[in-house]
Structure formats: structure tokens, C-alpha cells
Amino acid sequence: MGLLSDPNRRRALISLLTRLNAPICVVCYMAGVAWFMGLAFEPFTLRTYMSENAMGSTMVEERFPAGERALATGREFAAHKKKAGGMPVDWLVKTMQSHGLEVFTQRFSRTLPFPDENKERYMVKGTNVYGILRAPRASRTEALVLSAPCTPGDNNNQAVGLLLGLAQYFRSQVFWAKDIIFLVNEHDLIGMQAWLEGYHHTNTTGMDWSPLQGRGGSIQAALSLELSSDVITSLDLVLEGLNGQLPNLDLVNLFYAFCQKIGVLCTTQGKLQRNDWDSVSGYSHAVQTMMLMVMKQASGRSWGDHGLFLRYHIEAATIKGINSFRQYKTDITTIGRLMEGMYRKLNNLLERLHQSYFFYLMPSLSHFVSIGYYMPAFGLLAVILLLRALDLWVQLTAPPPRTEDGVVDPEQMSSPGVLSVLTPLVISHLTGVALYTLPIRFQEMAVEHFPVSETEAVVLTAIAVYTAGLALPHNTNRLLSGGGTEQGWKVLKLVAVLYLAVLLGCTALINFSLGFILAITLVPVAAFVTPHVPKFLSAFVMIVLSPACTLLFSVFFFQELQEMPISFLDGWMLYLSVISQGILDHCLYGSLVYPLIALLVYPCWLIFWNILFWK
Amino acid sequence: MAAHGCNYSALLLIICSVSVFIVADSQDTTLSGGHHAAAVEDNPQAATEAAGKTSEQPAVEERSWEATEVEEATLHEAAGDKQDTPAPETEAPSPVPQPKDDFQEELVIRPLHSGDIYASFQFRTLWETDFMSGNKVSHYRLFPKSLGQVISKFSVRELHISFTQGYWRTMQWGQPFQPAPPGAELWVWFQDSVTDVDGTWKELTNVLSGIFCASLNFIDSTNTVQPSASFKPLGIGNVTDHRFLRYATLPREIVCTENLTPWKKLLPCGSKAGLTVLLKSEKLFHSSFHSQAVHIRPVCQDWQCKTTSWELRQTLNVVFDLHTSGQGKREWSLFKMFSRTLTEACPLASSSKIYIDITDDPQGELFELSPATPLLSQAMVLGDRRTFSVYDLMQPVTFGTVRSLNPLIRWKSSEGDMLRPLLHAERYVAGYGLQTGEIHTLMYNNHPYRSFPVLLLDTVPWYLRLYIHTLTVTSKGKDNKPSYIHYQPSKDRLRPHLLEMLVQLPPNSVTEVTVQFERALLKWTEYTPDPNHGFYVGSSVISSLVPSIVAMDTNITMDRPLFSSFFPCKEESSFFVRVYTEPLLVNLPTPDFSMPYNVICLTCTVVAVGYGSLYNLLTRSFQIEEPSPGLAKRLANIIRRMRGVPPL
């Protein structure tokens, strides 16, 4: 800092930074991307290890014997489900009661803002059934949750069967210190949301639910189980929750440790771990795994029923059984033993899971990248914005060049009015507000006037507003006095660059993946755009790097990563459905990605668009 | 409204003390065939002896006997309403000369609705002495000396202490005989001669902590309250000034064998003979619920109540789980429960009995009890008329030829729904995040047509800052205005919040009490060693007179003479119940204690280096300064200024 307080050296440093601004920015950008890609390289990452003492050293034995019976229960459940045409509430209540649980039900209903075409639902009505296994000599202060969704069709019957089997087995054990809640939720996430809101008596999304009768105190951890076949080849662990929240890494470690102990193949993002990290294919495998996690986290949606628990500070994950063509199969008894082991260890917890990391990325199940390692990648991108801001600031404060006759050009001298900066800001944010509110507000009108379904109406309105925003604001500054000057756009750009830096910084702290993906695309735009660059080429580049196109590319990239490439037309359809899902996630579960993009990121991008067309 | 509230609480107090005696009293065996006068019933000792003599004659339950007794109790209750005098039907030794102290033991076994089995031990020691009159008591016989000394040293009038592991599941088990909250609970009435109540209380808790090997020394001013209406003396005495009452709970206290052993040592027979041989910790702590308690109170010696004696009641309640050890069969025996059988009564006891509740089985179809016993007893327990089979351990016949008693119960399943107890309550924390929250207390009145008032006592630690203006009480969607509210705000690090309310519960309704709170940020030394576990908030206490099940019974005329049943009998119309809600576990905002050193270092560095210099840079303006002129130049400049010439 002594460097900066010396005016001479300060001046030298500043002149260096302004002179070399562009090269430094380019270098930073490359370094940021390189750093990020390096995160997946195994020698640079840490091995996972159990931090929580209560789960680490203690031994538990897994003796769950009744896999076959669980499968039979699952088949019985399937039959009753078919007969009832939905959740077989009475049968579940009776079965759980006969297993010695305290059984309660919760009814809920929700009318979606517009029909969900992926899951074909609009007016949702359902019932959650849950049974509480009361721990002996415990005072109802702590609980664990095991949930299995009741999905329509033939899916997930085995999960419910195993859940009931585990309930029966757990009931006959004496070592429980926490109540265990066995929950079968209908309509997957909507049911889970209703149950969690009922349990915590909050209402964040305007759902109707009947109050819960029985509770088990504060929930310490939760697992959600998805199984659709009698035997499986591997278990997949899903971590990404609402708004990119992740469970504590110790929950992952616990799962991994038990898979190792029992000898079950385990994956994350559906990718098996590979040992050949030093080969190119091994490295690219790790990159793929990590990129999948980044994409999923950035989407801000809950990728399993567990995702909604995280808001309530309950560590949760979804365990998915996968049956592929691999030779080696695992039967349901083994999965039951794995679950038993995990619950016994969670039962041993003295405190909430808090010892290990909450912010991490996983290039494989046995390695992780902690926040300290991945943040520099984002930092290198963010520093570009600060450098550009510094450059602009220096240009603005530098004494204006004197004309030959020694008179300062008064036009240059006059600082641009507040209005010339404020107007584009306000207009672009109003466009953002329109993008946020109009699609749902005007769906009925759109359906009346155009031959589209309601869902299409919402998505197409959103796209229309988005596109209209491009045409609207960039001509306004002409009308204002003091606008259109060289100073004017510089001040505006300075404000916009700093705004973007703060916005991305905050986003990256909460949801690194989203922040990083936005930074990758928006930072170059913010860095290069001026009114003096070639208009059409720049406009094209800006549109390609705009948030909407980023989303489009992400859709294709995600499919590519999942090794399910799709044609452009399918991709476009998928893109439309992703937009509708994003809006639905916001309305149903309170995901913040849609409002973030609509109300903050898109307006910010519009300001740069405005600068490009500054006259 | 305040006067109204006062009235209510006074009534509650009296009825509460009386009804406890009713429960206690009415459990005494009734064996004689004739119609007894009420005065005779006051003497259970004599009744038992009489029963011993006439044991050949078939035991007939005498319903009118019970009715008379309880009726009398209520008459006295009505009489005592004004004068606040104790009802004279309390237990008293017989007028015939007898030892100055007296010991009774009993065990009640009750198969529960859920299929679990409930065993409740009661040991009662009565001692005709007066600790308070100044003369030093030094000779102890049956009464434990350690407790006697505590009573006299700390001028205790009444002491109730309970240690409970587990939560009583009202929805499955019905009402317990002795309710207790999870953890430890202690409430004490001091004599009005005590001047420094807080100091005495502090000393007393520390002494009790030593006697019972429990962490009662953690009771301090931050968890002690003085309830104004919820806890009234259960023994005789007319002081109801709550300045002499102290109440504290420790919801975190874990109860185990180290608390059981000192508790057993207080018994005259220790764990050597009588019912106490059953108290083996390996079985008692292999259960769903375990609660042990000690109650000391003064009671009347005779029905004129001229002199008082001290009663020590030790109770132990335990619920055994059918699923974990019975493997689904509904079959229980003493041996299965306690891995012991009985061979003798405690030689020091004047009465030693086992009661087995067979009410649910009037025809003997659902129930099988072996060995069969001819003795039956009926009692009003918690508003319900129950029938018990009685085994009298004082009689050698009971043990049969094998010289040991091992009652075996088999019963058919009554699978199904949960119970709907007339009054029950639950509590939870609503909301998410670590800044605010809301405590919800739900009170269910399941009575189909009667409403009744309840007293709700809430004690909340200071680190949950209650916003009392957000207090709402709603029943059936409508605002329910409490007729009496006593609220004492907390003081940080000194005392907890105390909230007492008298609320009328409408029939067949749920009443919800909500209050919002803010979570305080503690000082870093105030966190417990496991801060991420959360902090406990003790159970709220709900005390009420509940209309009884018997009064609800519509075919009351079935087994009664018509002339006796036109007006609903008042004595059976309500009973006293105390319900404890579950304790709460609340997470407070917790700093990351895992790397304090790193955190401190990093924070200090960032603050010192980063912030300091940045602030410096932002606030200062920098200019190149000319090197300061020499002394001669400065002098010259002064002179030039005086001359009015521009300086050099």
C-alpha cells in the first residue's frame, strides 16, 4: 500500500495498468479459464475425507436381511397404486401402522401458474403419507428423514418397498436416538414442498396444505431414495439442490465410505470414477463430471426431492438406483444394508453436519474442489471488470486535453448529467421487470389471440419481451441534453462495469457455477464494448454472448456432456421447455435464477447494449 | 378481567391439590362387602387389615364405596373453596397406635392401547414428625436421612423432583399417572420463614445435585422461574405466595443408572427385598420411557388435621416396548419385563401390592392373566373408571406353591388408530433461517361438547428474544382472548421469559398459541461445547381440569340405580391433568469454531492491513510536497510578509 500512497509511483502504476489494460485483461481471462479447467486435474484436487468425528471412527454393522420381502411389498404397493390410480393412501397408512409407526397424512393442492407440459400437470392435488418411528427414550427433539416419491407409472415401486422394509426393520432395533420419519410423497417436488412447508409452518409459495399432526423435532439429515428395478448396477448420488445449494460434504463422504465398504458401484452425475487421471481420456472424464455438476448447479433447480430440504438447513441428498447393462448386479438387500449403515451413522451424530465443506465441486466421488481452490478462477475473471473500471475512471478524471488556444473545450468539460446515466439504467430495469412479470400475467391474453397453448404462450412472451428489450432503450439518450457525449457513455459504462462486478461477485458467492458461467460470457462483452467498435459485428457477438443464448448453448452442451446429443430442432424445443421449467421452479419452489436473470443480469446486459448504440 | 383470572387460578389451585389426592386415594383396595361409612375409608390401613381377615369371602367391587368417597372429597373441596384449607380426606395413619413411620409399596401394570406395557412403582414413606418446630431431628428410621436433613436445613415445605428419559406419548399411551417433562424438573415451595429464597434455592439445587448424581447444579437464575398459577402446593398449607416457589427444568439432562442408584438408596429396603428387586437398570433402561421422581410434602395425620406428617413418595414409571423385545406377541410377565420374579414383600412395608389394569376386558375374552387372583379393585383414575386385579404380597397365598410370583398377561391385539386423549398438546418451532422463528403450541380439546380452561406455562431462555406483541391465540380460526396473562420479560444472561396464560379451549378444537422470536448472537464463550447441536427450550406445561370420560358416558344408567344418575355427578365430572409438551431444539447463529485461530488471524490481518490502508487511500488526497524551506528562508518570508511583498 505504500506503493499507492506515493503519488509518483502511483501514477506510474496507473499508467502501466491503463497502457497494458487490454493485454492484462486477455491474460486474466485466459488464466481464469485455464484455472477452472485445471480444477478437474486430479493432482490438483483433494481426496475426500470424513471430517465429522461422530461418523468417522465409530463402527456400525449392517444386518438388514429382508430385501426380498421389501420387493414383495414394493409389488404390493404397485398393485395398490394401480388400483387407486394414484397414491394408495389407505394401504400405506395400514402398512406403516402394522410396522409400528405413528402414521399421519397431509393433503395438499396447488394450481400451477401455467400447465407443466413435461409432467403434464396443472391442478395438482395429492396426499403425503409419513410414519414416524419414535426413538426409545428420546424426547422428540431430533429426527432423520427417509423419503421415496410415489411417482405415476411403474417407477419407484421398489424404493417405496425398500422404505417400508427398512421401517419395519428399524422398528425392531433399539439403538435409535433420533426419530426417523419415513415419508412417501406424491407429485415429487410439489408434495415434498408441501410437506416441508407444513413441517416448518412456512408458506413461501402460496400452496394449500393441511397442517401436520405429528412431528419429530428438528430434522438433522434426510435422504431421498429412487429405485425402479429389482437389481441395480450402481447407485448415483445427486447433490444439487434448489438455488445451487449443496449438502455438507460429509454426507457425500458417508455415502462413498459405505459404497466402498459394502462393495457397491457408486457414481456422481452418472459418471463412474476412473483411475487413469494422467491420460487424456481420464482427464476429460473428470472434466465432464465436473462440468455436469457445474451446469446442474448453475440451473438452480432441485435435481431430486432432497433439494428442497437444503433451504431449511437440513443436509440432504438423493440416492438413485441405476440399472445398466453392466454385468455386476447388486440386489436390494445390499442397498438396504447400505441405507441401514448410513442411518445408523447419522443416528450417531451429536451435532448437525457442519464440520466439512458446504461449497465444493466434485470431479469424481472421491475427489473434491473446495471453495478456496475454485474461487480464484472466478476472481481472475472478475478482476478484468475492475481493471476496465479503473481504466475508465482514469480516463474520466484525467484533465481534458487543452486546445491550442489554451481554452478548455466547454463541451468536454461539462460532466454528463445524472439523467443521462440514470435513464438507461431505469429503462433497462423496467424492461427486466416486464420480462419478469409479463409472461405469466399475459398468458391468457396470448392464448386468446394466438393459436398456442398456455405454456407456449408464457415462453414465447418471455422471448418476445426479451427481444423487444433489444430494440427499446438504445435510442433514448438522444432525447436528453448532455447525453451522447464521449463522457456520457464512459460514465455509463463505468457504472455498468462496477454493477456487473458486484452482481457476479454476489452470485458466485452463493452459486459459484452460475456466477462463473455468467462471467465467462458477460465479462468479454463488458470489457470490449464501446460505441466505436464496428456495430454489426459487435452486435452479433453481444447477442451470441447474451444470457438467453448462453442458456441455449448450455442446453446443447449439457446434452453433449450427458452423451445424448440432440438435433437443433429438438434442442430448440428443449430450450423452450427449460425456460418454462425455470419460470415454474421460481413459482413453485422459490428458485431464484429466473428473477436474477430477468431483474438483474438482463438489464445489466442491456446497458452494455445501450452503450454499443450510443450516439 | 384480572379478578376473573385470580378467581380461576384460586379454584384451579384447590382443585388441583384435591384431585391429586383423589387419584392417590382411590387406588386403595376396596375389599369389604358391606357399605362403609366415609370415615372408615379414611383409614386404608384398617381397611386392608379388615380385608385380610375377610379374605375368604368373595371379593365384590363396591361401586358405591368409591362413589361415596369421592363425593365426600368434593364436598370438602367445595367447602374448602373459601378458606383454602386442605381437604381432610387426605391419607392419614389410623387412629390406633402404630409406628411413627410407615412404608407402603405398590406396582401398577397397565397394558397400553398401543400394545406397549406400562409399569408404575410407587413407594410411600410417612413420618409423623415436624422438622420445622425447632427441635433437632436426629433419629431416622424409614425416612432417608439425607432428605430429612435437606428439608430441615433449607426449610423446604414441598419438593418435587423428577428425572425423565423419553417423552410420554399421549396419543398412544393415554395419560400417565405421574406426568413429567423430558430431562430433569425441580419445583420447591419454601417455608415462609425463608428470607433469602434465591440463595437457599441455589444451595438446595447443589445439594440435590450431589444426592441424585445429576447436573442440577446447572440450575441458576437463567432457567429458574416463579410461576404464579401453574404450580400450587400439593400438600397442606395455605401459603400460595409464589415468592416462595421456584421452578426449573433441565431438558438436556440425561437420566441413567447413576441417577437410579441414589434413588433406590432412599428406599427402606434398598434394592434387597420387596418390589424394589425388580428395579434392575439393564431392563429399566431398555424401554421406551423412563421416569423417576421424588415428591416430599406435608400431609395431615388425621382428619381433624391437627398435626402434620411428612410424606415421601418415590415413583418410577417405565414403558416397555412390545415391538423390540416381544417380537409381536402380546404377552408379558414380570420376568420378561424385569428379568426377576417376586418372592416376598419388603419386610418393613405395611402394605405391598401389585395392581394389574384389566379394565379393557370386561368379559375376560381379550385378556388372560395368570395366576388368577380373586382380588379386584376399582378406582377412578384420571377420570376413567378402571378395574384392577390385585396381588397382595403381604399374604403368603399370593406366592403359591412355587414361592414366587410372576404374573403373566396375554391379550388380544387392539390394533389400530391412535388414541384421542381429551387434552393433549404439541409444540414446534416454525420458520427457517437463523434470524427469526416462531414457537407454535397446539392444544387439542377432543371433548365433543365441553369446553374447559387450561393454564399454559411457557419458559423460554433469554437467548430467544420473544416478540410478545406477536402473541396470538386462535381456536377454530378465531381469536381466543386469554382471561389471564402473566408475562415476565427476560433479562439478558439473568432470567428467562415466563409466560402464563389461562385459555378457554372450545370443545372439539385445536387452540394454537404462536409467538415470534429472534435468535440472539451469544458471546463466544457462552456457546456450549457442541453449539451446532442446538439449544434446548424446556417443555411448556399445561395444567387443567378436564371433564372426565365417565361423565361423557351416555349409558351411565346401565350399572347404576336410576335415582342416583339423573344429575351428572360433579365429583366425576372433571379431573386434574398436567400435560407437558416436547422440548424444543433451536439452532442459534453459530460461529465456525473449527478453526478459531485461523479465523482470528485472518480477520485481524484483513482488517488491519486491507481495510486500514484502503481507508487511508480513499480519504486522503495526495500532493507532491515541496521540501520544507530552510530556517533562513522562512525568516525571510516572515519579514517579506510584514513588508507586504510576495514571499520567496
Automatic annotation (TrEMBL), chain A:
InterPro entries assigned: Gaa1
GO process terms (BP): attachment of GPI anchor to protein; GPI anchor biosynthetic process
Keywords from the named record: Disulfide bond, Endoplasmic reticulum, Glycoprotein, GPI-anchor biosynthesis, Membrane, Transmembrane, Transmembrane helix
Chief location of this protein within or outside the cell: endoplasmic reticulum
Pathway: Glycolipid biosynthesis; glycosylphosphatidylinositol-anchor biosynthesis
Record's function text: Component of the glycosylphosphatidylinositol-anchor (GPI-anchor) transamidase (GPI-T) complex that catalyzes the formation of the linkage between a proprotein and a GPI-anchor and participates in GPI anchored protein biosynthesis. Binds GPI-anchor.
Membrane topology per record: Multi-pass membrane protein
Pfam families: Gaa1 (PF04114)
Cell compartment(s), UniProt: Endoplasmic reticulum membrane
Protein source organism: Pogonophryne albipinna
Subunit details: Heteropentamer. Part of the GPI-anchor transamidase complex, consisting of PIGK, PIGT, PIGS, PIGU and GAA1. Interacts with PIGK.
Ranges that cross the membrane: 20-41, 371-390, 417-436, 496-529, 536-558, 591-612
GO cellular component term, pick one: GPI-anchor transamidase complex
Protein name: GPI-anchor transamidase component GPAA1
Automatic annotation (TrEMBL), chain B:
Signal peptide: 1-26
Stretches with biased composition (Basic and acidic residues): 73-84
Keywords: Signal
Protein name: GPI transamidase component PIG-T
Region Disordered: start-end pairs: 44-101
Pfam families membership: Gpi16
Cellular-component GO terms for this entry: GPI-anchor transamidase complex
Superkingdom to which the source organism belongs: Eukaryota
